[in-house]
């Protein structure tokens, strides 16, 4: 092993260790009835329904050998649970729940089933760390700059908080980065097949991925046709082999249709079809109270022409102005509040563009599609969440841009100082999120909450800092071991200071290196 | 691998055909889109949702039909061009009641604006792709498509203003006096459509003065400006003259009882004019209206494009300055809000309602032109720009996003008068006798009743109106008015007359009540237009 490879391996190991210290969880293999207690839900690792819903499906598969939820697990998954043909079913795209099965099994063996399940996601964080590094290098960034950029993605963005819990965003990011890599690294039929396979797979991880993947899917599709200009002729070549690459979608789609058929009664049935009702609550006899029953209570709005207003109801251009504000500028989710270092990274797009125009356009298109799509979304806050979780794939792209600008300006002390300040701030903010909770309410809900709780409700990262000061950390290692020696706040200080130190050392190394490349 | 060889000659022929017939092909396409959307909104009944659309149609109709038809019916509430243009079609009952008489000119304006955008971009040196992108950004906007399908005045204004800006650009480029005269002509038409045109006139005059000063010195400013203003200011001059002639006061349209000013005084008293003297709120309200009308992303892209354009050294400085005229609706609307001349309610900012939010559509051609330019300029980013626009517009159409329809249907602009107009249709249509009603308050009822205009005695019917207010029981079999509301001129006039006691309230609705003369007092009732032709 060369020194270069050793350095990279050490970096990956260091990242893995910090992630291990941060992963959320509690020890034990809880029974279904235990999972409903505050220890696991309100105050524990299953504080929010996306985590519960996905874990519930894994649990049902492993413990019940079924895609249907028993009543207790259905209650556990509320409000993201459906009711179809007399059964409670998951409303989430299924793949993450299947991907976490190995971790579930291993975790159960070691007596920490939830931690094992969550660690599956952490593995995807490490893969993303490596992929960002590889892609940054592909676009001409130096080794150290690429490692710093990967580090920033993992620890200085809200990706950190979602890498230590059970969310789909890191899996989505892995699939997108892998597709980008396949696209730029090779134009063989295999790479095209793989891209279409990954596109379809991404849809089974999270439905909106169908749209986020459009830029790369279209770029790959252009390989099917090539044009050549010859004397007085245009030659259009249709590459049948690449056309067959479309078959790449078959396997994920077979899985997807099977899941839908079993869960919802038909291959294309999902929430919104007549066969599945969203469950809002479960009564004492175990019967569902569905949202359609609630709808019957509420009168339809007056003067609404349904012909004009029906359609794709989740994504609306009317929401765009608010969505952009929430994702970019707001104090409760905005990039500028949670990860301002990535605002600087945008400039790096220029250097990627100078290096490789078409790839820069592709990367920008993916990031822009990510931003636009979730700004069109009626709930840009992502429910109760830490930072803008929907933009995690976009953070990865911006990290690649950051690597470029770090490489280019690695001797610029002012720039590096700015990066150090913004990076330090971003690391502290996001470490607070990762070690405490993702349950930050949207600012718009705070007034109502304050009325209910009769106390000041925080909605930005100050809520996480407050939680670390007055409550326990949600970190598994803290809860099982470190709490004997320190309080949550001290644990946070140690982890965040360690990360800032690593970041600072990296930047110093970058400054003293030649050509922005320590290799 | 399948290979297909196509002769380059075919492509060259297609290209040559496009170059020869581009305007025709574009016109036909835009006309097809325009007709389809007119039909679409006619079928689903949204085309006449705006109360103002029905009033515009009634004004046009009163010019050709009623108890006192004639040009005087154009009134002073709105500028006259829109209603004058309706005259050739409005006599037809279907064209009146379908809104086609008003929409027809808006549909032509829609096509015309698309063509002007195309030509404007060509003058900026933009290639076909950028030109077509600009046209598509303009045309693929449901707010534009909806408004062109109605009898509202905005599309005509967009066309005349954009055409004025185009010839202004041309004049900046070639210094040809004919371009200046053409610019003056179109801006004159804009000044006769909406007051936004008056601001453009002032702005354009400033630009012209600046250009002359830069190229020919101070001395020539007066001559060129006078030449420009002679034609461009003619419309305003005629409007003052019209008000003096008909109402005896050249400023009647400003201070008259039905003027926007009078309405805004009432609103200000009620505290419903929060943008007055508040620059930040005015800016916020208009920008929201603008973003909602343009689906936000194109507006942001256009802002970026404007910056790129104004820094683009490849375009001459005077041309870049000329393009700023495209922003005059932005300046005008913010200024109008600050000065309290205009009111816009945006849901979420101004309570839970919409009002006049359609004004945000005034920058639709501006956005289209700037984006068309950007697509041409940023060659490497074309896939991103065009792709992201398609992406946004797909969701705009998929979610049926048209804030102008909300503005018309659920805001203060709409009045659901179907009950009261339905009553008139059922009980008065086949009976003899006039209906006394204030058009200023209830034009929508007149329109929706389906009765001919000559069945109504309103403010514009001269002696009929005066007589009916004095002795209603001699002239009106039905009276439609808001009981106990002195802002309703009919109530104000008849409620204190002795004859009013002979009426029974036969129907009461949210917007107006219907009174009918008792049968025992109908012996002396006039049911025919006995006053003949009035001056």
List keywords for this structure.
heterodimer; A: 519 residues; two-stranded antiparallel sheet; 28 helices; globular; B: 535 residues; mainly alpha; 5-stranded mixed sheet; 26 helices
Tell me what you see in this structure:
- The complex is a heterodimer of chains A (519) and B (535).
- Chain A has 519 residues and is mainly alpha-helical.
- Chain A has 28 helices and seven strands.
- In chain A, the strands form two sheets. Chain A has a five-stranded antiparallel sheet with strand order 1-3-2-6-7. In chain A, strands 4-5 form a two-stranded antiparallel ribbon.
- In chain A, a hairpin with a 2-residue loop joins β4 (225-230) and β5 (233-238).
- Chain A is globular.
- Mean pLDDT of chain A is 90; it is low at 294-312.
- Chain B has 535 residues and is mainly α.
- The A-B interface holds A 211, 214-215, 218, 229-230, 232-241, 302-305, 307-313, 315-318, 320-321, 324, 353, 357-358, 360-361, 364-365, 368-369, 372, 376 and B 1-9, 11, 44-46, 288, 291-292, 295-297, 300, 380-381, 383-384, 387-388, 391-392, 395-396, 398-403, 405, 409-410, 414, 416.
- β5 (233-238) of chain A pairs antiparallel with β1 (2-7) of chain B.
